[in-house]
Amino acid sequence: IGTWGPNSIQTVKVDAANTKFTSQDKSGKELNMLMSKDNKSLYLCPSTTESVALPTGMTTVNSGSFNGAVGKLTIPSTVTSMQSWPTSATSIHASNEPTSYVAVPSSLKSVKVYASSATVQTKYKGLGFTNVVVGTSCGEKASYFFENGVLTIVGSGVVTSAPWLTDANIGAAKIKRVVVENGITQVTAAG
Questions:
Q1: pTM
Q2: CA angle 25-186-39, nearest 5°?
Q3: What is the distance between the alpha carbons of residues 58 and 82, in angstroms, rounded to a whole number?
Q4: 3 state DSSP class of 63
Q5: Which of 24, 61, 73, 145 is the one with CA 20 to 30 A from 95?
Q6: Nearest-angstrom CA–CA distance, 56 and 80
Q7: Judging by DSSP bridges, how do beta strands 150-155 and 177-180 pair with one another?
């Protein structure tokens, strides 16, 4: 598809009858992204101040996919190829370990990355990110972060425990909002 001018495209909507591309996830929700019909490849994500959550199952972020800055960027564990990065983001929630990638722009390296595991943390530090924190486990592939009254659950699969309830620094009374990221399929631990 090629490279677009910075911040030039604001909205992406693909006709549902298109057999090659889509702008919807598998549930039919509009994502304002140009993707392959099977949601495995990203071709364009316009610049936005909104949060961007790449769909679970996506494997490739193609060259030139990001068209500027984004709000919070959530990258599922299925993404193995990062051939494009946004110019900036408010934060990155990463569950993936890219095996193929292009250099991270210097403007993005100091952004806080919330890694779902120590392995993901090591990978992102190796990519040049300088502010990478790892979440606390709450399932086989799920972890959580707590910051400014917000409990954020990231990763994939089932949340099987609620360690935030016994964490002296958190406790249920300090939680003002709960965010369950794309990729979490079930919460069996109640809090």
A1: 0.83
A2: 15
A3: 11
A4: coil
A5: 24
A6: 12
A7: parallel
Q: Are the C-beta atoms of 75 and 96 separated by less than 8 Å?
A: yes
Q: Are 98 and 115 in contact (CB under 8 A)?
A: no
- Over residues 159-186, the pLDDT tens digits come to 999 999 888 888 778 899 999 987 889 9
Q: Which of 184, 186, 190 is nearest to 93 (CA)?
A: 184
Measure CA 188 to chain center: 23
CA distance 155 to 143: 6
Q: What is the distance of C-alpha 161 from the center of its chain?
A: 22
Q: How far apart are CA 89 and CA 110, in angstroms?
A: 10
The full DSSP string for 90-150 is SEEEE----SEEPPPPTTTTTSEEEESSHHHHHHHHHTT-SEEEEPEESSSSEEEEEETTE
**Residue in the structure block whose two tokens are 């193995």:** 80
Q: What is residue 36's DSSP assignment?
A: E
The burial class, CB within 10 Å (0-12 / 13-18 / 19+), for 169 is exposed
